[in-house]
C-alpha cells in the first residue's frame, strides 16, 4: 500500500521481517497475535539461525529495525480495517548491546588499493579511491554531484548533503 516509488531493496527491508514473522509465528488473524508472540519473535531475531530464511542472529539495531516494520504493518492493517486492536508488537524493550569493534584496515592495504585504482584508472576505481580517502559510504560517494566536489578550495573537500536521488543513512 505504501510501496509506490520505493526501490526493490527498500521493499525487501519491509517485507523480509513480515515473511520471517509468518514463518516463526504462523499466518493468523491480527487479533490472535499476543504479547508473548511478539517476545517470541523478538527473541528469535536475536538468537536463532535459520538457513531457510537466510538469517543469522541479529544485533539490537537490526532487531529494532525488523520490529519497526512489523509494528508498522500491524498498525496499518489495524487502522485500514478499523480493528481497534492493541498492537502486541508496540513498545517492546530491547537488549542493550555493546557496539562491535571493527578493526581498522591497515594503512598499507589502503595504499595498495589506491595504487591499483590509479593504475586501472576508470570510474569504478576512482569511486573506490574516493571511499578509501574520505570514509564515505558507497551510496554517499556514488551519489555525489559535480557541485558537491570542490578541488580548487584552499582545502579540497566534498559536500555531503541529501539530494532528490540520495537520502542519508544516519547511523
Explain the layout of strands and helices.
Blueprint: H1 8-25, H2 35-47, H3 60-80, H4 107-120, H5 123-134, H6 138-142, E1 149-150, E2 157-158
Antiparallel strand pairs: 1-2
Helix pairs in contact: 1-3, 4-5
Q: Taking strands numbered 1, 2, ... along the chain, how are they ordered across the largest sheet?
A: 1-2
Uncertain segments are none
Class from secondary-structure proportions: mainly alpha
Summarize the helix and strand pattern as letters: HHHHHHEE
Give the CA-based shape: elongated
* Average pLDDT for all residues: 90
Secondary structure: helix percent: 40-55%
In whole angstroms, the N-to-C terminal distance is 27 Å
Strand fraction: under 5%
Please, how many helices?
A: 6
Largest sheet report? 2 strands, antiparallel
Total tally of structural domains: 2
Q: How many strand segments? A: 2
Gyration radius from CA atoms, angstroms: 22 Å
Amino acid at each position: 500500500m505504501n510501496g509506490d516509488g520505493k526501490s526493490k531493496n527498500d521493499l525487501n527491508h519491509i517485507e523480509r521481517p513480515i515473511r520471517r514473522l509468518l514463518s516463526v509465528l504462523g499466518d493468523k488473524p491480527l487479533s490472535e497475535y499476543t504479547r508473548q508472540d511478539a517476545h517470541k519473535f523478538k527473541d528469535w531475531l536475536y538468537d536463532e539461525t535459520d538457513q531457510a530464511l537466510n538469517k543469522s542472529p541479529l544485533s539490537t539495531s537490526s532487531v529494532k529495525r525488523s520490529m519497526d516494520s512489523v509494528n508498522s504493518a500491524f498498525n496499518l492493517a489495524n487502522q485500514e480495517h478499523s480493528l481497534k486492536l492493541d498492537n502486541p508488537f508496540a513498545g517492546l524493550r530491547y537488549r542493550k548491546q555493546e557496539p562491535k569493534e571493527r578493526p581498522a584496515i591497515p594503512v598499507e592495504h589502503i595504499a595498495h588499493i589506491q595504487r591499483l585504482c590509479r593504475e586501472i584508472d576508470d570510474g569504478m576505481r576512482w569511486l573506490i579511491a574516493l571511499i578509501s580517502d574520505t570514509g564515505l559510504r558507497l551510496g554517499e560517494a556514488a551519489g555525489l554531484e559535480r557541485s558537491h566536489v570542490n578541488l580548487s578550495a584552499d582545502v579540497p573537500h566534498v559536500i555531503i548533503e541529501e539530494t532528490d536521488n540520495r537520502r542519508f543513512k544516519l547511523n
